[in-house]
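Example complex used in Figure S2.
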Amino acid sequence: MKADHPQAVNEAPIDFSAATMTEMKRVIGLFPEGKQKSAILSVLHLVQDELGWVSVGAMNRVAQILDIEPIEVYEVATFYTMFHLDPVGKNVLEVCRTGPCQLVGSDDLITYIEQKLDIKVGETTKDGMFTLKTVECLGACGYGPMLMCKYHFYERLTKEKVNEMLDAMREASKS
Amino acid sequence: MARKLLIEHADVQGIASYDVYRKHGGYASVEKALKNMSPDEVVEEVKKSGLRGRGGAGFPTGMKWSFLAKPEGVERHLVCNADESEPGTFKDRYLMEKLPHLLIEGMITSSYALGARRSYIYIRGEFMYVLRILEKAIAEAYANGMLGKNILGSGYDLDLVVTPGGGAYICGEETALLESLEGKRGNPRMKPPFPAVKGLWGNPTVVNNVESIAAVVPIVNEGGEAYAKIGIERSTGTKLISASGNLVRPGVYEIELGLSVEEFIYGDDYCRGIANGKKLKACIPGGSSVPILPHYLVTKTAAGTDRLMTYESLADGGFASGSMLGSGGFIVFDEDQCIVRNTWNFARFYAHESCGQCSPCREGTGWMEKVLYRLEHGHGTLEDISLLEEINKKIEGNTICPLGDAAAWPVAAAIRHFRDEFEWHVKSPQEAQSRNYGLIQAPLEA
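Predicted assembly (621 residues):
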């Protein structure tokens, strides 16, 4: 079910781990009394860190935690592009496609990764290991072409570096 | 070699830690301001310095500060705009990653000047690892009595919080940023009221770019007049330039304003010329929102004088033959780059990033993207080029925030200077798919 489904508010809220809840409390506490809604983006990042994506059930739980209406969470989660509103693979490769990166070869990089993983932009590999996405400027223009995965910036990418990176991610995601 | 006021110590081992930063003169501006200066005296130094907002608009920082409303009993805030997302710009990330305490020091000194007791750094969500660096540095500043209650025995209290965005270019616009900081969608607000009167949670708020806030540190340390002596005319001080594209040595450089563009592109201390021995085709000197310049207008103005890295010189000639310093996002194109493809690419960016609030921008950016797509992919007509110009006029000036203008200007400039290349895409679509147009030979009006 998506956030724009009429029955979204009836989706059962899901629970987060104790560690995530502790961290949520901390980031909410950074704001003054009554302004806890300001922590919503921090909280949604924590949700995604735990689940890999942001489901409607998770949003409904966030609404309870922040003591706001579910719609207030939906409208935010659907506005900001970092939040994945559908399930994704273990490693989401977000390749910058904007001008400065394009000047130094991001088009070729995207094509190369598509071929290498045998998926198109927006798709996930059959083994659930990788999702490939394109994103707009990540603020690494002097170090392109580049991509982001798990908040890490992989910069000045070449085919060799991509091969090494994919192997390392496969290895790390096995355990 | 030019003086560096901001990033001189960027490569010192351990400079991201409080102790090493302190050993290199860090937090001197906090001591000086809190012990020996009144808040208004700090504002006065910033006014004297001539510092102009480093985020892109170039509005005088001291003047912005002096607009801050100070009603009795109402809390005020300083918010640092670390949402760096103007394509071509990556200087703030460099500064925060290398010198987190410089930003924190600037936040303390500036917050003191403004009478803010709760200040925020809003950093783009993709820079989560930089946020962690800042969190660590903030904790160190608290532990060393630079944040919290009664800082350095001055009676001044300040709490500083760093918080992430979620991936939205529009949140670099200050009122969208404030909406986002309140936990909402990043839809820009109507102005007035300006944030200086009604900002975060309705309180008077100043929003400044990372680099502007960092620049307050040397301004307070050395005095506004000393700072104003660097640079030329109304372009005072130093500026971080993010150099990207087809350069031998792209990266972040701190320059004294007034450096020649020629020296910046080709000089040994800077970018060392165009990569792979190619020729310069074009340059966007201030981030993707400013007009593109063809090669013959990059190092010289239309009048034939040397083009300098200043607000005035880069704008020389207006939009007919000039551009803007903007955020200092300096994007360089070599002779093999396709202007139509690049213009389409940036149009796609703005269409993607439009918040959707104003119809001219929401519909116009998407429309321009579609028209440019067909021009780039060989299905365009000559009428499409004039259509783009028409759409442009319908967006420009008709939106709440400047994103509409930012989307329109680059397209207008690309057509103005590279019309031949656009027409070639229409007349020789197959050829345009198989090779690049190359350099444009001379000014079109000549």
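Residues 155 and 412 of chain B are 54 Å apart (CA to CA). Chain B touches chain A through 56 residues (CB under 8 Å).
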